[in-house]
Amino acid sequence: MDQLTPIFDSDALPIGILVLIVLEAAVLFAWQRRHPSSPLGSPNTARIVSFLGAGGSLLAAMIFHRRPDPSPEGFALAMLAAFVIHLWHITVLLRR
């Protein structure tokens, strides 16, 4: 467990997760373009961006909060973005 401590003390983990979110979005967009009538359902762009954008905004807030010199403005802006994008995601889902 001591070997994992440096990962949790740095920004490597949240930044790595942000990179994975971007990769997931790219894969979903590529899947959507190649298989528009997939039996798994075709995720539309609004659902992809709204779902992954809210999570990405929360991770950005965590990065702002964890800094050695925390940025309350950056944290608040990222949390506000997560809230707004989450509300957008709910409206996208309700329109289905």
Could you walk me through the main structural features you see in this protein, from its secondary elements to its overall organization?
- The protein is mainly α.
- The protein has four helices and no strands.
- The chain has helices at residues 5-9, 12-34, 45-66, 72-94.
- Helix 2 (12-34) packs antiparallel against helix 3 (45-66) and helix 3 (45-66) packs antiparallel against helix 4 (72-94).
Helices and strands, with pairings:
Blueprint: H1 5-9, H2 12-34, H3 45-66, H4 72-94
| Separate helix tally | 4
Tell me the distance between the termini.
Answer: 45 Å
**What string, H for helix and E for strand, traces the elements in order?**
HHHH
Could you tell me the number of beta strands? 0
Structural class category: mainly alpha
- Rg calculated over all Cα atoms: 16 Å
- How much helix, percentage-wise, in residues? over 70%
Brief descriptors of the model:
single chain, 96 residues, mainly alpha, 4 helices, flat
Outline of this structure?
The protein has 96 residues and is mainly alpha-helical. 76% of the residues lie in helices and 0% in strands.
